[in-house]
Write a structure and sequence with these properties.
- The chain is an alpha+beta fold.
- The chain has a domain of 114 residues: Ubiquitin Conjugating Enzyme (Roll).
- It is 52% helix and 14% strand.
- Strands 1-2-3-4 form a 4-stranded antiparallel beta sheet.
- A hairpin with a 2-residue loop joins strand 1 and strand 2.
- Helix 1 packs antiparallel against helix 2.
- The longest helix is centred in the middle third of the chain and has 43 residues.
- It is rod-shaped, with a radius of gyration of 56 Å.
- It starts with 5 loop residues before the first strand and ends with a helix.
- Protects DRG2 from proteolytic degradation.
């Protein structure tokens, strides 16, 4: 059910001039659009159209204002010879309601478009860029170049490390303590060297060949050798 609420203000009585404020029904979030129409009667009204204009407006786009003026002209021509102010105002009221609906529809479409774009962006994040021959070859070229650079750096580091490594002779020449280190070790060990006597306890049990016990042993043979 449509409720129409108009506010009429008389500006003058000769000529008769007044304003009527027309407000649309509440749209989304109680949003409305509004316009104030100014009418002035001529001497031959209603056999001639009244002069009209949009005195003020709220929340209307320029194209909305243009559409309302065209609507007033059309309705005035169709109702020549009859009292027409109520008809004109009612037509504007319906137009304002249509504009509110259009605003709602436009915002819903914008919301859906944003949601669609967000879903597409999320899908791209999960699925990534489709692999083609071109982008694979491009990636492989970059990967090979990076790998080659890593190998070069590693070889350079190993080469540098090899140059800095001293040979045994170089170590001996740079550290003169090395020529006395073995002797020093033996001197420091001194009498602290321990001998495990158990290693020699079973010597008698070993079968050792004694050349002197051999009846065929001839020392001359050794001298002749």
């Amino acid at each position: 059910m449509t409720f129409c609420l108009y506010f009429l203000t008389v500006l003058s009585e000769n000529p008769i001039s007044f304003t009527i404020t027309v407000t649309s029904e509440a749209g989304e979030n109680d949003e409305t659009v509004q316009t104030t129409l100014k009418f002035t009667y001529g001497e031959k009204y209603p056999d001639e159209m009244p002069r009209y204009e949009i005195f003020s407006q709220e929340n209307l786009e320029d194209n909305d204002v243009s559409d309302i003026l065209k609507l007033l002209e059309l309705q005035a021509e169709e109702n020549l010879g009859m009292v027409m102010i109520f008809t004109l105002v009612s037509a504007v009221q319906e137009k304002l309601n249509e504009i509110v609906d259009q605003i709602k529809t436009r915002r819903e479409e914008e919301k859906k478009q944003k949601e669609k774009e967000a879903e597409e962006a999320e899908r791209q994040c999960f699925h990534g860029t489709p692999v083609t021959i071109e982008n694979f070859l491009s990636w492989k070229a970059k990967f090979d170049a990076e790998l080659l650079e890593i190998k070069r750096k590693r070889m350079k580091e190993e080469e540098q490390a090899g140059k800095n490594k001293l040979s045994g002779k170089q170590l001996f020449e740079t550290d003169h303590n090395l020529d006395t280190s073995d002797i020093q070790f033996l001197e420091e060990a001194g009498n602290s060297v321990e001998v495990d006597e158990s290693l020699f306890q079973e010597m008698d049990d070993l079968e050792l060949d004694d050349e002197e016990d051999d009846p065929d042993f001839n020392p001359v043979d050794l001298e002749s050798d």
